[in-house]
Amino acid sequence: MANSKYEYVKLFEEEDEIMLPNIIVVRVNGNEFRRFSQVHEFEKPNDVKALELMIECAKAVSEQFPDIVFSYGFSDEFSFIFKRATQFYHRRASKINSLVVSFFTSVYITKWKTIFCQKELRCAPSFRSQVIYCASLDVLQAYLFWRQYECHLNNQHHTCLWHLIKCGKSEKEANEMMKGSQKQDRNELLFQRFNINYKKDIPEIYRQGTCVLKAEVVSIPSLKLISLVEDVVKFKSDGCPVKRQRRKVTTLYSENIASRRFWNEQRCLTKELGYFTDDLNKTHSEYIKSFQYKSKLMPYTWIAIRIDGCHFHRQAASRFSEIHGYEKPNDAAALRLMNSCAANVLESFKDIVFAYGVSDEYSFVLRKESVFFGRRVSDLVSTVVSLFTSMFTMRWNDFFPYKGMKLPPYFDGRAICYPSSQILRDYLSWRQVDCHINNQYNTCFWMLVKSGKTKSEAQKLLK
User: Fold this and answer.
1) pTM of the prediction?
2) E strand residue ranges, 106-255
3) Which of 8, 35, 214, 374, by CA, is between 20 and 30 Å from 187?
4) For 17-40, what is the mean pLDDT?
5) What is the DSSP letter of 312?
6) What is the documented function of this protein (predicted)?
């Protein structure tokens, strides 16, 4: 950070640490996916390839972030549950929320060609996400019950609706026929008119949704000895290995994921989260209201949404810039790609009136009177981060035609409110001062390295 007179603007950044013992859940769902599914001609009522792609993304997210122990999803949504004691990014809600949705978006695009071999990706997909706080395991159980109940209702409704449309009804007529119908009515409609037994004839992936979890990998060298397999993930400064228990990401299906029988049979879940003690037959309306709650930013204040590339340049096991051979100290093509993504975000969201970027960072300013997404902070940040990630991934080949993308890029984001235009200008000045200082340092550093100095020697000279 630049040590300047403008740094006071950091005081406007809110602390958003999720306190223990809250269990962290991040729910990701498609943004304007009704239109997206029409453009890409998804099969109705369910497109198995679209679901397979969502599941592949969920598995990739689970593998990328070790503290995620369980995921559940259906249609265009997935919920990711972190282990109870996680300290992932110091439990900061904005950081966790944006990283998960950004990585999910990136994988969705990179795996599109694998799943839809004969179908071109015609427009940029984007997702919204939010963090749900579950104060206890009972609340988490209620959340899972609620989401699977929504899966049942939505799939049954859409199955009836699209069978009526396919037999000649207009969408308006089909909706009128479905209006006010109950679960049993819809089952009868499917059986009487289409000879479909909902429970027996509709695949479980549509009816039940999909669970993704990490099962422990066990080694059995002899009948008397069973051991858990561990992998070396990194080394300490003294050379000692840091080991992590190997887990295999698997998918499961269950009619009731909130039941004691299903949950308590999964050792990886009971170990990290605990045991369910009772079965549920409904979710309290107060719980549902809390699951749907999204905090809003102060009205009539300037909103700045700042996004940063995750592990693009800083010390990490796999720095994006080094793996992709970025020019040092600055890569012109990478900067043009960032600028192109920012321009697309401005074109897509009319309430964004200005953007400023440097290196792997961009700040987007929304007009003071904006009521975009009702000023709900999770929707604002996740949608901007997701679309930026989407454009970065889709347009990579336009700027790096001879470099294949080796890792999915992803970004974190946060939103800050500034009550006056003067403070907003100071925020932008702070970011530009930071740009000057960082670029000057990096230019000196890489010139020293290119002249023959080691990185350690260059750092000492510039200290």
Assistant:
1) 0.92
2) 127-134, 210-216, 218-222, 225-228, 230-235, 241-245, 247-252
3) 35
4) 96
5) S
6) Adds a GMP to the 5'-end of tRNA(His) after transcription and RNase P cleavage.
